[in-house]
Amino acid sequence: MTASTPLRTRVRPVPPPGSRRPAPPALVLVAHGSRDPRALTTVRALEARVRALRPGLPVRLGHIELNEPLLPDTLAALGDTRAVLVPLLLGRGYHVKQDIPELAAQAPVRASVAAPLGPHPLLAEALHARLTESGWPATLDGAARRTTAVVLAAAGSRDPDSATDIRRTARLLAGRLGVPVVPAYASAATPTVPTALRALAAGGRHRVAVASCFTAPGRFATQCASQAPWIASAPLGAHETMARLVLHRYDQSLSTGWAEAA
């Protein structure tokens, strides 16, 4: 650049104050926690997928119990900033309604709590994908449809809203598969997986798959899969559709709930 270069080509304009876009709120993945070491590996992999899909978005992880980092520590590290907490839970229940909002309220961070991951069509898509990976056929003829069904195995909760959400997820999955999908639970709710399997067999449904409605591996997921008379899908884990669903819940919270929470 020479001295004869016009001034307007040598000076970069300074943006007016307030014109820079503020940093987006952090996305905090809220996992339950498990004594199974595979659970932490799985949610870390999901965290990485979310980051890859939305570069530049601050993504953090916090657990309700059993694993570090615990959610209060994650929120404390964010300081007086903004965050959206996305529960890695598949329906409403005590953790979504009580634990997570209370922990958020006690933290310095200005936080909103997003809806749980289910029910949602993307959750049904991920469940379908995991079943396909486990051997679910691409097509079923009429005779096969009359003898085939799915048990949607979930953890279970005493909260009736949780059962409502799992039933909705079961209906969404049934719409994709074209066969009955029966919700069943590992604890705290009925029917259990064995009870659901017996009821389906009594109705002539002898080829039954167990769809794992769990975010990560753990005792309940392993127990339910072991009861499958045919195939059992893996937990939803770090499937790309799950990462898309996490980001959808984050965006949804920003558009519908941020003003009240901030």
Relevant terms:
262 residues; alpha/beta; 4-stranded parallel sheet; 11 helices; 7 strands; 45% helix; elongated; disordered C terminus
Can you walk through the features of this model?
The protein is α/β, with parallel strands linked by helices and 262 residues long. 45% of the residues lie in helices and 15% in strands. The chain contains eleven helices and seven strands. The radius of gyration is 22 Å and the shape is elongated.
Number of strands: 7
Which sequence of SSEs, written as H and E, runs from N to C? Answer: HEHEHEHEHHEHEHEHHH
Strand neighbour order, sheet with most strands = 2-1-3-4
Amount of beta strand: 5-15%
Largest sheet entry: 4 strands, parallel
Region (Disordered): 1-24
Protein name: Sirohydrochlorin chelatase
Organism: Streptomyces nogalater
Biased composition (Pro residues): 13-24
